Amino acid sequence: AQSVAQPEDQVNVAEGNPLTVKCTYSVSGNPYLFWYVQYPNRGLQFLLKYITGDNLVKGSYGFEAEFNKSQTSFHLKKPSALVSDSALYFCAVRDDTGRRALTFGSGTRLQVQP
Amino acid sequence: GAVVSQHPSRVICKSGTSVKIECRSLDFQATTMFWYRQFPKQSLMLMATSNEGSKATYEQGVEKDKFLINHASLTLSTLTVTSAHPEDSSFYICSASGESYEQYFGPGTRLTVT
User: What's the sign of the alpha-carbon dihedral B39, B41, B45, B50?
Assistant: First the structure.
């Protein structure tokens, strides 16, 4: 079985400050890891993914994430937050076996204050 | 990038009626489509996985006779909520996957059962 934990329901950060949204995972095989963002009443927008290669992954809108195998983490980061980054963020994982469905974390609401 | 559409985006129906939601991959062939359900302020829960031309695989606890899934072509999957009840009110999101590990999400359908 695979699982994802996002320990923070909400993260508050001031505009211009760096932000981190935490994610840890559990899978039986090699992980494929994803971050998505969701705005109110909208579907999910893809931010970035880790499949293999460099542990630091760069994605859309200035976001990046670092894969840490020993800590089974894939935290989302951005050096300088924008008010427009305020949204709901989901971490997701699947393994590299035949099952292709994603398992999502519970989501973290990011609130960037002006 | 790959685009997935859902129709309708919003639907209100009376208790006891059935509602059909369409999920289309617009510019690629989706061998697998996934249906998720999202309750307010909660994460996405996988309902079922459908492969083109075969029966859908439902997650534990999801009633297959209530949530009918058809994946008759490589670009279209439908979810029919039969005999809808107010507790079926939710945000339904589909995703589509081709030959790669990527999943592309639709914009979601908000179902309200009165």
Answer: positive
d(CA B34, CA B53): 14
Q: Which of B34, B43, B50 to mutate to test the interface with A (most CBs of A within 10 A)?
A: B43
Q: What does pLDDT average to in each consecutive run of 10 residues of chain A (114 residues)? A: 92 98 93 92 87 92 96 97 96 80 92 96
Helix (H) or strand (E) holding A95: strand A87-95
Sort out which chain A residues have CB atoms less than 8 A from B41's CB and list them: 107
**Type of residue found at A61:** Y
pLDDT in tens, B28-55: 888 899 999 998 778 899 999 998 888 8
Round to whole Å and give the CA distance between A94 and A32: 5
Note whether B7 contacts A: Cβ–Cβ < 8 A: no
Mutation target for A interface from B6, B103, B111, B112: give the one with most A CBs within 10 A: B103
